[in-house]
Amino acid sequence: MFFLHNSRAFLFLLLAVCTSISSINSLLPTYNDHSCLNRPNQIAISSYISNQSLATLLDSLSTKASQSNSFYNDSNGGIYGLFLCRGDVSNDTCRDCVNYATKEIRSRCEFNVLAGNRSAIIWYDECMLRYSDSNFFGEVQTEPKEFMWNAENTTSGVDPYYGAKHTIYALLDAAVETDHMLFKADKKAVGDGTQLRYGLVQCTRDLNATTCRKCFNYLMTYFEQLQNRIGWRILAPSCSIRYENYRFFDLQSEATQPPPPPPTPPAPGVSRALSP
Ligand SMILES: *[C@@H]1O[C@H](CO)[C@@H](O)[C@H](O)[C@H]1NC(C)=O
Ligand SMILES: *[C@@H]1O[C@H](CO)[C@@H](O)[C@H](O)[C@H]1NC(C)=O
Ligand SMILES: *[C@@H]1O[C@H](CO)[C@@H](O)[C@H](O)[C@H]1NC(C)=O
Ligand SMILES: *[C@@H]1O[C@H](CO)[C@@H](O)[C@H](O)[C@H]1NC(C)=O
Ligand SMILES: *[C@@H]1O[C@H](CO)[C@@H](O)[C@H](O)[C@H]1NC(C)=O
Ligand SMILES: *[C@@H]1O[C@H](CO)[C@@H](O)[C@H](O)[C@H]1NC(C)=O
């Protein structure tokens, strides 16, 4: 029972348009989705204290982000939480995103706190934040997951295998084998070599290389359902994968190269679905 509103797809589209126009220095992170997990039958015995614990935890996470951490997991009063910023975003962007997320997750999932189920997740382009009243640190969690895709089909000429699959698997290998940040974003020439595809993969860093790989492998079981899309994402609590035909990340190593062409305008009807 998650939320699927057309208005939100529209909102996403609007945000995507706004951010690609104003692009730099936009302080509001780009919202993707959120989920509040309800456990209505359990009434929190000390909801006031839990509420305070959650507030304290979220404040602490926000502080950690302002101290230039791009990932942090912490617990307080039996509530466990973490944030993760996308591997390429600046310290300032990370701080702003996490700060905003801690407020938004409270207001969007407030009912959740009152009902005694203290488990929620919110995803932005720039960061994600989650908390739960059970200790999930180190566990591969792939639910709830969200699929997003561009309604446009792949342009002809690029076989999906050499496009998306090739690109993504190379990144997955690099992220778990060579990068302790469990993050990789890069471009790959596909088709006849003149077309570029861009991918980004990342795990929360409470995982290790082995469990991160496990998380990616699980998400990739959905690849065939997405392979004909020119762009798509799979977001899960422990890991995420994104693939596009334009550059959507910012890497230091590319700083000296000429700026990328403006992003493809989002196709009508960016679609999304939260799976249970
Ligand atoms: C919250 O409720 C959902 C469904 O009602 C349940 O699956 C989930 O385990 C609960 N959250 C926690 C942290 O137990
Ligand atoms: C929970 O905390 C928030 C923020 O501190 C506050 O606005 C809200 O009233 C609190 N709710 C309860 C039930 O204590
Ligand atoms: C971001 O913070 C980290 C950790 O403090 C630091 O190593 C890095 O240089 C900072 N990056 C920038 C661009 O200031
Ligand atoms: C990775 O984490 C899992 C789960 O916490 C643990 O069982 C496993 O031993 C860890 N692997 C390594 C290589 O540390
Ligand atoms: C994409 O391809 C599918 C199957 O090949 C087709 O049914 C659908 O109409 C196409 N969508 C667009 C937007 O071209
Ligand atoms: C963060 O998670 C790790 C497991 O990945 C755990 O060992 C560590 O204690 C956690 N840190 C805090 C502050 O809870």
Residues in helix, %:
25-40%
Bound chemical compounds: 2-acetamido-2-deoxy-beta-D-glucopyranose
Assigned CATH class of the largest domain: Alpha Beta
Distance between the termini: 7 Å
Order of helices and strands: HEHEEHHEEEHEEHHEEE
Number of domains: 2
CATH superfamily of the largest domain: Gnk2 domain, C-X8-C-X2-C motif
Q: Which term fits the overall shape?
A: elongated
Low-pLDDT runs of 5+ residues are 1-24, 254-269
CATH hierarchy: architecture of the largest domain: 2-Layer Sandwich
Tell me about the largest β-sheet: 6 strands, antiparallel
Q: What do the pLDDT scores average to?
A: 79
Widest sheet: strand ordering: 7-8-10-9-6-11
Number of strands: 11
Could you tell me the radius of gyration in angstroms?
A: 19 Å
Q: Can you tell me the CATH topology of the largest domain?
A: Killer Toxin P4, Chain A
Q: What does this protein look like?
A:
With 276 residues, this protein is of the alpha+beta class. The protein has two domains: 27-137, Killer Toxin P4, Chain A (2-Layer Sandwich), CATH 3.30.430; 147-253, Gnk2 domain, C-X8-C-X2-C motif (Killer Toxin P4, Chain A), CATH 3.30.430. 34% of the residues lie in helices and 24% in strands. The protein has seven helices and eleven strands. The chain has helices at residues 6-22, 47-66, 91-108, 110-115, 161-177, 209-220, 223-226; strands at residues 31-36, 71-76, 79-85, 120-124, 127-132, 145-149, 183-190, 195-203, 232-235, 239-244, 271-275. The strands form two sheets. The protein has a six-stranded antiparallel β-sheet with strand order 7-8-10-9-6-11, covered by helices on one side. A five-stranded antiparallel β-sheet has the order 1-4-5-3-2, with helices on one face. A hairpin with a 2-residue loop joins strand 4 and strand 5. Helix 2 (47-66) packs antiparallel against helix 3 and helix 5 (161-177) packs antiparallel against helix 6 (209-220). It is elongated. The N and C termini lie close together (7 Å). One 2-acetamido-2-deoxy-beta-D-glucopyranose is lined by residues 68, 90-91. Residues 253-276 are annotated as: Disordered. InterPro entries: GNK2, GNK2_sf. Residues 30-136, 142-248 form the Gnk2-homologous domain. It comes from Juglans regia (English walnut). Residues 1-23 form the signal peptide.
